[in-house]
Amino acid sequence: MTELIWFRNDLRLGDNPALTAACAGNAAVEACFLPAPGQWADHDWSPNRTDLLLRSLDQLGQDLAALGIPLHIRSIDRFTDTDTELLALCRERGITRIHANEEYAFNERIRDHRLTGALNHQGIALHIYRDQTVVPVDQLKTGNGTPYTVFTPYSRQWWRWVESHPPRLHPAPAARGAPLPPPALPELTAWRSEHVDWLAGGEGAAHRALEGFIDQRLGAYADQRNYPAVPATSQISPYLALGVLSPRQCLVAVQQRTGAESPASAAHTWLNEIAWRDFYIQLLYQFPRLSRHQAFKPETEALPWEPAGANLEAWKAGRTGIPLVDAAMRQLNTTCWMHNRLRMVTAMFLTKNLFVDWRLGEQYFMQQLVDGYLPSNNGGWQWSASTGTDAAPYFRIFNPVTQSERFDPEGTFIRHWVPEIAHLQGKKLFNPNGTVAGYPAPIVDLKQSRQRAIERFKALGKG
Ligand code: FAD
């Protein structure tokens, strides 16, 4: 008998529940990954994300080969082709048991549900294990037994759970046989990118990034994380998004490297961001409509969004005439990553000031980001657009000029990304207001557009 570990959103050997289960006995173990470019396109995955995915897959194939575990890479187009390909592989290799880690978005869940039946029918068992979060997705419920939809009470419970269930990691498996030649990757040239060379692929690189952050920047994180000109955050989001790193490994690394008694005492502010990530994943799991381009607050579907047109294009290109927004969009377009504060600023600007449907911004981010991750992207966009689980009321709208004065006070970030206005001094830099040749005048009046957004949200309540 041969056990199969089916890698999906978990491209790692360490802390991988499905891999541990596959390697638990003495049976032969083989591995597979099924690239599905048609599905990637449907999900708006960017070539930046898939380039890192393919490089991480390459590394995983080499690591598995060194352990004597062959990795079969079989390209399919869409999830609907999975049954045929997996069944063929199982028949070829004499596999009767498949192990995989759970995925929480709608299409993935439908695929697994359908597949379980189809495989069972052929005498093959599919075992699915909880993954992707620190706290299992259905673990925390309110007093009424309903899922949490507000972060603050969720995070209180999250911390209680973490303190009473210190994460125990699944060790990477030992060698199962003589080393093998590494597998060849499919070409998939359309899914490659040159924009993310700054980020190395694979588990080793992910751990180096995590450990470097903990050793050098964690101490100042709480004070500096909101300043985009300061490299104060971890930038491990691309690895978490692809499962090259697990969030449980983050907790354990913090505790081990700081020698703290509990993760909370070492790095509460940073790990609270990991709690945000868990929060959005459990929401996606509990509310399948979030995977289907629907608002968390159904009443907001009636908002009269403006036609996207030229305003959306100016936003995408970083030519809105609002320096902080433009700097942020240019950071995204060039590096395929954007600082968290700026994700909020640019998303609010698009959805509140330009009053463009959040779904268009969500899609553009997904098409560019190296860390594009449906739960966090959808959660962040709906939070910013006030269509989601935002505890803050809709009239709390960031003013991007005030935000630049607070979080880029020296103008370092703006000057770097918007060089055409770098010579401006003082407050002029934050709002040149059409006075610099070659740099656009603001495409929208911030005050009036803010008022328009508030009135439209108010009208929803009355309607
Ligand atoms: P750090 O500050 O070092 O945080 C550590 C980790 O915690 C991150 O790597 C990330 O996994 C998680 N995290 C941090 N902030 C958040 C948050 N607000 N929500 C959920 N998880 C968080 N994150 C993604 O991973 N993929 C996305 O597609 C994505 N889209 C976003 C879109 C919008 C509109 C907004 C407002 C936020 C989005 N985020 C997304 C969340 C956040 O901006 C990024 O996770 C963060 O900027 C990544 O940088 P970092 O790794 O340096 O984070």
TrEMBL record:
<keyword id="KW-0274">FAD</keyword>
<feature type="binding site">
    <location>
        <position position="221"/>
    </location>
    <ligand>
        <name>FAD</name>
    </ligand>
</feature>
<keyword id="KW-0285">Flavoprotein</keyword>
<keyword id="KW-0157">Chromophore</keyword>
<feature type="site" description="Electron transfer via tryptophanyl radical">
    <location>
        <position position="358"/>
    </location>
</feature>
<feature type="domain" description="Photolyase/cryptochrome alpha/beta">
    <location>
        <begin position="1"/>
        <end position="134"/>
    </location>
</feature>
<dbReference type="InterPro" id="IPR036155">
    <property type="entry name" value="Crypto/Photolyase_N_sf"/>
</dbReference>
<dbReference type="InterPro" id="IPR002081">
    <property type="entry name" value="Cryptochrome/DNA_photolyase_1"/>
</dbReference>
<dbReference type="InterPro" id="IPR006050">
    <property type="entry name" value="DNA_photolyase_N"/>
</dbReference>
<dbReference type="Pfam" id="PF00875">
    <property type="entry name" value="DNA_photolyase"/>
</dbReference>
<dbReference type="GO" id="GO:0003677">
    <property type="term" value="F:DNA binding"/>
</dbReference>
<protein>
    <submittedName>
        <fullName>Deoxyribodipyrimidine photo-lyase</fullName>
    </submittedName>
</protein>
<dbReference type="GO" id="GO:0003904">
    <property type="term" value="F:deoxyribodipyrimidine photo-lyase activity"/>
</dbReference>
<feature type="binding site">
    <location>
        <begin position="273"/>
        <end position="280"/>
    </location>
    <ligand>
        <name>FAD</name>
    </ligand>
</feature>
<dbReference type="GO" id="GO:0006950">
    <property type="term" value="P:response to stress"/>
</dbReference>
<dbReference type="GO" id="GO:0071949">
    <property type="term" value="F:FAD binding"/>
</dbReference>
<feature type="site" description="Electron transfer via tryptophanyl radical">
    <location>
        <position position="381"/>
    </location>
</feature>
<comment type="similarity">
    <text>Belongs to the DNA photolyase class-1 family.</text>
</comment>
<dbReference type="InterPro" id="IPR036134">
    <property type="entry name" value="Crypto/Photolyase_FAD-like_sf"/>
</dbReference>
<dbReference type="InterPro" id="IPR014729">
    <property type="entry name" value="Rossmann-like_a/b/a_fold"/>
</dbReference>
<feature type="binding site">
    <location>
        <begin position="233"/>
        <end position="237"/>
    </location>
    <ligand>
        <name>FAD</name>
    </ligand>
</feature>
<comment type="similarity">
    <text>Belongs to the DNA photolyase family.</text>
</comment>
<dbReference type="InterPro" id="IPR018394">
    <property type="entry name" value="DNA_photolyase_1_CS_C"/>
</dbReference>
<dbReference type="InterPro" id="IPR005101">
    <property type="entry name" value="Cryptochr/Photolyase_FAD-bd"/>
</dbReference>
<feature type="site" description="Electron transfer via tryptophanyl radical">
    <location>
        <position position="305"/>
    </location>
</feature>
<feature type="binding site">
    <location>
        <position position="270"/>
    </location>
    <ligand>
        <name>FAD</name>
    </ligand>
</feature>
<dbReference type="Pfam" id="PF03441">
    <property type="entry name" value="FAD_binding_7"/>
</dbReference>
<dbReference type="GO" id="GO:0009416">
    <property type="term" value="P:response to light stimulus"/>
</dbReference>
<dbReference type="GO" id="GO:0006139">
    <property type="term" value="P:nucleobase-containing compound metabolic process"/>
</dbReference>
